[in-house]
């Protein structure tokens, strides 16, 4: 029987060669030698570097892709998966709280806050008309890993608007501020649709107007059925995808990184 070679995938002398290569590349990615979004060397260069055939090298890259560490783009090459976060849409926690729980570096910039009359579509959802006065309009920018990712505007009805308007929303979530004000949140209704980036949000997200995005619109309700908050978030669509985990007893839905 022929002795296994250095390029053997089934050798008896140790792990399959492609697994060793995958482990070495994974280590470099996790140590930051290849940064998120960066291209790996060309396949021919890597195969020469490791002394293996292209077939073996491609097995290693496929293993890395299965782990979610890289994405392979036809005609372009192999890239380290960008650092993006999963934003769960099946919980009543805030976006920032969900992201931080996953260990992501998330920061919030408060762009503006003011008591004002809401636009008509918001007024309808909050059951507020012109005679009911003003609501709190809170505009925030979410940054992931230091990069703008979500532009979010929230409208909060009275009397809770005045109760939370002076909180530091760069440090505390809106949901936490409402809880501190004695509000019990029991449910939220959310719709998500594809759209393109508006001119008004383009500058904040540092992308051209017309860029593909997801738009999330959420209405949050108190225990007595009163609509408390209306949110509208523009989420960069070249970075996120919707994922589902289905089981016999539950359905979990979350945002996650686009895999190309």
TrEMBL record:
Transcription in keyword set: yes
Stored SMART domains: HTH_GNTR, UTRA
CDD domains in the cross-refs: WHTH_GntR (cd07377)
Residue ranges of domain HTH gntR-type in the record: 15-83
Keywords assigned by UniProt, alphabetized: DNA-binding, Transcription, Transcription regulation
InterPro entries membership: Bact_HTH_transcr_reg, Chorismate_lyase_/UTRA_dom_sf, Tscrpt_reg_HTH_GntR, UTRA, WH-like_DNA-bd_sf, WH_DNA-bd_sf
SUPFAM superfamilies for the chain: Chorismate lyase-like, Winged helix' DNA-binding domain
Name by which UniProt lists this protein: GntR family transcriptional regulator
Organism: Planosporangium thailandense
Lineage: Bacteria, Bacillati, Actinomycetota, Actinomycetes, Micromonosporales
């Amino acid at each position: 029987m022929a002795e296994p070679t250095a390029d053997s995938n089934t050798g008896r002398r140790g792990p399959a060669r492609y697994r060793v290569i995958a482990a070495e590349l994974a280590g470099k990615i996790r140590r930051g030698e290849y940064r998120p979004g960066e291209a790996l060397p060309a396949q021919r260069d890597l195969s020469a570097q490791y002394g293996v055939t292209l077939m073996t090298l491609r097995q290693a890259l496929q293993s890395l892709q299965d782990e979610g560490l890289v994405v392979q783009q036809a005609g372009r090459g192999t890239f380290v998966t960008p650092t993006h976060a999963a934003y769960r849409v099946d919980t009543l926690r805030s976006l920032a709280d969900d992201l931080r729980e996953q260990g992501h570096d998330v920061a919030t910039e408060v762009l503006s806050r003011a008591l004002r009359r809401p636009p008509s579509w918001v007024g309808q959802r909050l059951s507020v008309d012109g005679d009911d006065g003003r609501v709190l309009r809170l505009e925030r920018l979410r940054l992931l890993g230091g990069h703008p990712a979500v532009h979010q505007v929230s409208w909060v009805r009275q009397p809770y608007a005045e109760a939370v308007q002076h909180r530091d929303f760069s440090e505390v979530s809106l949901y936490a501020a409402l809880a501190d004000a004695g509000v019990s949140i029991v449910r939220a209704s959310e719709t998500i649709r594809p759209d393109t980036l508006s001119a008004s949000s383009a500058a904040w997200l540092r992308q051209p107007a017309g860029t593909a995005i997801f738009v999330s619109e959420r209405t949050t309700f108190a225990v007595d059925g009163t609509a408390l908050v209306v949110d509208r978030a523009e989420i960069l669509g070249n970075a996120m995808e919707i994922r589902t985990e289905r089981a016999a007893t539950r359905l979990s839905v979350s945002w996650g990184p686009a895999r190309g």
